[in-house]
């Protein structure tokens, strides 16, 4: 526990922590920013950014606030549909449609915010039910708005490189939000609430407001990701936009890296997505099987993830890990 | 009264009892182990395949396959408890850990069934003579009646087990107070493993009933049954085995009536809305009395 660190060192260690985080972010920028100039496989890098963003933002609620939203995919799906409907049905330009997607995600997030008072399995089940309900609601909407069972095709907006950079901007936004949520006073408050919400309330932490900030961030980014992905692939349909595997992968990638650490989801998503791609290409059905096995193995053998296990093994470095 | 509505209500009771069984077995597992079995639907589908292959390979009728599948699934559950569930108790956050492990298990089972049985929907070749009975203008297929009878018998046997036998009483005692039961000398591990076995055995039987009553099954539909199970146990009260019977029948009636007037999509949506409303307004469930939060 970082509490055991001597008082005088706390400031120094947080400087080092910040420095390490700066280096990680710089490395991400260095890899992804110039990539379209060199890389032949843009899609691989695009989806790598997508999963880093999804896992990072999942970490805001699961790692920092202690909730397990199994319906996380709902925000992704809402973002995709909001972008598609605003662009195709209402004829708005893509940037406006994406802003609309973020707004839609946050609005739905705020509407379901009362569920945050539920704990443990209750929250997980309700979150899942909400995602399913959302999918059914969209399927019941008139098909001249949402495209019905055929979905929406956005081929007129086709511009993979622009969509790639849009995803890059979203990723940077998610990393910035992560910095804000962990390294400010807000981060201290969030950790206090996650560990003991009643005690935090007693010492004067605004429990509801603090959770809500993390929740809003965690609903906005998947909505943006869903929107940008829809732009990148030019296609939206119900089954892929509300596929529970999106939740599953976000959970696995974030957990494999280590929930509660900023670098956890980045390490988890880049490693596992890389492996996933190597396997996926050859055996599509096995992908699902392996995903499930990885979840079980992680929970039983490495419940704190790669970074968490490292922090536990070398506990004196723990306070330097962002 | 409208005949369609009456037919819907009759279907609602048949389907509702199947849903009740799904909920009862989920609740037995949750009540005793505090594990939400995300993979329950996959075990149900596996039970349906069990009935299919028992008929295709061994020539067993679904009714005769029932005890066999109950025993096989029960042993599987007993073993799985020691492999998966027992270790979770040591984790920092057992509830979330169990949700995730069972979620992983549901992906694994779904994928394995897809690999083994392929994606096409199958149906059981099972008819009785006469194929259906008419009550006025209400049609009741005899297979559904038989399914209904089996569901009633199984639920009754389970209630007898839980309320009238010593192991059943011990099991309910764990639900009420986990710490106290160890003081009076109950082997918690053994009983927990038996409970997981009982839950999966019931899931297997439910799968057979599903294969008899619903037109078809495929590796993909497990998740749907898990979600139905969640709705049912939330309506009846989480961890409350007999409450799930009421929850199941209520949801079956609501769903089938909504299907008569609207569509399957609306019926499912109604289920989720019910679930969310009940959790937010009355988290102990409509029929729950104990504090299960």
TrEMBL record, chain B:
<dbReference type="InterPro" id="IPR001851">
    <property type="entry name" value="ABC_transp_permease"/>
</dbReference>
<feature type="transmembrane region" description="Helical">
    <location>
        <begin position="43"/>
        <end position="60"/>
    </location>
</feature>
<keyword id="KW-1133">Transmembrane helix</keyword>
<keyword id="KW-0472">Membrane</keyword>
<feature type="transmembrane region" description="Helical">
    <location>
        <begin position="12"/>
        <end position="36"/>
    </location>
</feature>
<feature type="transmembrane region" description="Helical">
    <location>
        <begin position="66"/>
        <end position="85"/>
    </location>
</feature>
<dbReference type="Pfam" id="PF02653">
    <property type="entry name" value="BPD_transp_2"/>
</dbReference>
<keyword id="KW-1003">Cell membrane</keyword>
<comment type="similarity">
    <text>Belongs to the binding-protein-dependent transport system permease family. LivHM subfamily.</text>
</comment>
<keyword id="KW-0029">Amino-acid transport</keyword>
<feature type="transmembrane region" description="Helical">
    <location>
        <begin position="191"/>
        <end position="214"/>
    </location>
</feature>
<dbReference type="InterPro" id="IPR052157">
    <property type="entry name" value="BCAA_transport_permease"/>
</dbReference>
<feature type="transmembrane region" description="Helical">
    <location>
        <begin position="137"/>
        <end position="163"/>
    </location>
</feature>
<feature type="transmembrane region" description="Helical">
    <location>
        <begin position="260"/>
        <end position="281"/>
    </location>
</feature>
<feature type="transmembrane region" description="Helical">
    <location>
        <begin position="226"/>
        <end position="253"/>
    </location>
</feature>
<protein>
    <submittedName>
        <fullName>Branched-chain amino acid ABC transporter permease</fullName>
    </submittedName>
</protein>
<keyword id="KW-0813">Transport</keyword>
<keyword id="KW-0812">Transmembrane</keyword>
<feature type="transmembrane region" description="Helical">
    <location>
        <begin position="97"/>
        <end position="117"/>
    </location>
</feature>
